[in-house]
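Hi,

I'm pasting everything inline rather than attaching a file, because the server keeps stripping attachments. The sequence lines come first, and each chain or strand is labelled.
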Amino acid sequence: MHPNDRRYSKEHEWVMLEPDGRALVGITHYAQDHLGDVVYLDLPSPGAKLAQFQKLGEVESVKAVSDLFSPIAGLVTEVNQVLVNRPELVNQDPYGQGWMVRLASVNRDDLRHLMTAPQYEEYLSKLE
Amino acid sequence: MTQSLLHTPLHQTHLTLGGRMVPFAGWEMPIQYKEGILAEARAVRSGSGLFDVSHMGRIWLSGPQAAALLGWVTTADVAKLSLGQGRYTLLCAETGGILDDAILYRLGEQEHLLVCNASNRPAVWEWLQRWRQERFPSVSLTDRTTEVGMIAFQGPASIPIMERLSQGLPKRLRPFRITQATIAGIPALVARTGYTGEDGFEVMPSASDAQALWRLLQETGAAPCGLGSRDVLRLEAGLPLHGNDITLSTNPYEAGLDRFVASDKDSVCSVALRGIVQRGLLKKLTGFKMLERGVPRHGYPILKDDNPIGEVTSGGYSPTLDAYIGMGYVSVELSAPGSPFQVDVRGKRQEAEAVPLPFYSRRRA
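And the predicted assembly:
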């Protein structure tokens, strides 16, 4: 269920390194399921510099507002504009079209503080 | 100490359907099912949906003085109700503030049913008992909330389905009317009412028949719906929620509920309400639409020229209009459609504009 090509944070964000060294960031299936229908996203502007686990933005579902944290340090180079206009893609495809920001100049060492897919699955099993 | 939550007769049904259960007004209720809040809201607008509303207070009043007691505690002209007629009404305190909103039905010559909010059931009960003792001692009051289930069956498809299951009941049952009927063999009180802005029914079978009735209606294709979509739908329809949009510190006039106040009768609140009319209004419950993307939520400040002028009482995303909408109290002047103001969305000032209520009204056949 959770793709093996990325790492996961305890706050239920994922980061996936791309071949060119940049990284995509989004939220997990578990996060979108618990939030319910996403109706609004507040994401940073390109150029924003983020430390690991720094607040990245906010995601709002019908019922609640939640903070988003960047699972990795980096520089925001792109925001998923399709998602801003169609926030429901976070629910429909959290690991694909639901990506939120693209980061450059990422700190690969940060990956050590994140979980692999099996580790994340085990983490989830303890939450329930 | 935590009090244990009450369960409706449909509790097991909700668990089986994967309902997400949350505490609500002392009850454990589904906020949504698997399809999610927006899908449920869309199902009600385009087809039909089922809501468990068995948590709502149901109080029966009987005796020769029942209508007089209800006339004293509500804003309705109860004496004018014909048999089987219902009316949306308000229970106001001596100050004119709103204790609760409710639907009252005349079931018989000397029998009435009052359906109130779950959260206000204890307060409404106490209020009725107080005035019964002081002025109308012969009235008999019975709270049957836990004995009787209540299922709201809402949406355009609910009419033909009910037509089929109850030998043409919709033709005999006009809006805001109630009758005893049989739905595919299950006896129930059926009212042509709801809280979604769609046509539909609120059906009250015995608690023991509630699960069977739910199953039957679900098999017709009605989508199970939780409290989340109920809130979205009522907001779109501009229907106030007690505790948010109307409270003890707001009155029926500023809430725009004038048409539910019978002004030519004496009641607990009639002196206060006349005074309010004489003094004129300072604020008005106003619908607004966000002009920028952002979700207005309960409690967010409403600003004009950087000054706080009110608060959002209800707000959210409207799937039917694909817009962010809300309601709140602003000055009478700013309540006029088109008036610009801002909503402080967690520190960000976002432009909004007053719009007429309701946000959504169904096309009538």
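Chain B has nine helices and 19 strands.

If the labels don't parse on your end, tell me and I'll reformat.
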